[in-house]
Structures are given as C-alpha cells and as structure tokens.
What does this fold into?
Amino acid sequence: MNGISAAAAAGAAGISESELSALEKSGQFEKKMNFAALGKILGLQPQKLEAIAAGWLPAKKDLSGWRELRVITTQDTDGLSVNCYLIWDEVQRDAALFDTGLDAKPILDIIAAENLTLRHIFITHSHYDHVEALPQLRAAFPKARLHSGSKSAPVDQRNKTAEIVHLGGLRVTHRDTPGHADDGVTYLIGNWQEDAPHVAIVGDTIFAGSMGNGNGQWELARRTVREQILSLPPETLLCPGHGPLTTVAEEKEYNPFF
Ligand SMILES: [Zn+2]
It folds into this structure.
C-alpha cells in the first residue's frame, strides 16, 4: 500500500517480511514489534494498529433490532468468504438483496421459507465475488429491479442521483463510494421499525478494522471512507462485503487507517 515495500515496512516494525505477511493474513501477532514505526511508514494509526494486532473485533451485533435484516455468507473452495444482505418489509413480504455472494441457494432458501418476493437487487460493486450468483437470482426473479453504479449497465439499472427506493416502510438511498472499485456504491437503509439505527451496506469500501484494497487509488479510497462513511451517525450499522459487522463509532475508535 502507498507504494511502500513489504521489506521497508517489516524493517520499520523490527520484524521479518514473512512475519509481516503472517500478520497481514491473520491480524494476529505474537512477537513484540515497533507499532509506532510501522504505523508511520504505512500511514496507519499506531495505537489502533496495535489494538487490531492484539485481536480487536467489533462487538457482536444482535440483528433482531432490525426487522428484517439477514447476513448471508458464502464461500468458494479457496476459503474466500463474502457477505450479502437480505432485507424485507414484515407486512408486505417484499425483499431487497444487496450483492449476491457466490451462491444463490442460501438466499433462495430464506426467500422461500419466509414467503418473500424479491423486488430489488442492489450491487455495491461488480467484483466477481459480489455478483457471482446474479444470473441464478435473476432467473428466479426476472422482475426484480437491478441497481448499480456501473456505467456500463443499461440506463434503467443505474442508480439515479437522490433516488429513494421504497420497500414497504423501509427506505433505501445510496451514495457513490469509489476507490476500491470505480463503480463502488454504499446503500443506506432507513425508517426501520422502532427507530433502529440506519444500516449502511458498504461493499468493500471499509471493513471492521480495515478497508478494501485501494487498487491504485488509495487516496481516493480513504477520502471516500472519511467523507461518505465515517460522517454517518455513530450508531450506523456498517455491513461490509467481508468479515464482521461493525458501526461508525467502532471504526472511528479502532480502524488504524483513520
Ligand atoms: Zn471488491
């Protein structure tokens, strides 16, 4: 990241390159290292980095406060796991899906078990792991409206500025969050029963304690998170494409990138 070599970063931290790569993979590290120097060279906040390395995770979220919101996690054979999210209005039984993950089956199972009609499919970005199951879902629900930020999508499938999509009592809006992907979009879901906090489906814009690969646009990716995600109310539930759910307040306190 930021064009810093792994060797330089490891050197600053006082660890070997292979130890640094183990830390990146697991987020866990036994050996004592120089977080201040490592944070400085990587442009990360040293205290937050140390907390992450010590195994910080966001508090486990009880989703029963959001009616209805489900996380569906699918995996490929290499162990890559990706989240997608299904919401619905309890009364009308109309549902909306955010990304598709790698396999349509668990989604279709919930839709059938809960007697739902899938009305909308919102795409956070078109990286394959987020849209892999789209053809199966479109075949099952050909009338479901597709929404994305992709400029190559047909006009009627592209998000429109300031558009509000109603799903029974729930309201879905969006903000463009480019950086990790050019077509990156974050969807905001509000008007939950009993005033449950807003939900932000962020794709790979931000993760608990981390963020999506900047793909050569690190500055843009970071600015996007700062301006479009961390500016949301602190209690906002953040639903990333990979890893655990978190909140704006938790990321402000612990995410070493900010
Ligand atoms: Zn991605």
